[in-house]
Amino acid sequence: MPTNILIRATHARRGLKWAVPAMLLAVVYIVIAAALAQWVAGGAPGWINLLVLVCLWNALKFVVNGPITVVRMMRARAIERRHRDASSVSNKTISVG
After folding, report:
1. Which of 4, 7, 24, 56 is most buried, judging by how many CB atoms fall within 10 Å of its CB?
2. What 3-state DSSP class applies to 61?
């Protein structure tokens, strides 16, 4: 599914910054699910309830993905900062010595 591709892309280092804005897609999916549910309540075919479930499932995936990727981004930045600090310390000791 396209949502799985987008979520996988937000787990890459370059895509981590887009995870929180991607959470806004959950709102879109919830609105679509509500509209479809109203349509079913108004007399539409019952199989459309499957689309409601798919929309709600996709919304849940985006809502859960946001905080997870924020934690991953903080961890990646901490590791990068640690490496940058270690390299600057080693460069200073080399230039001093």
Report:
1. 7
2. helix
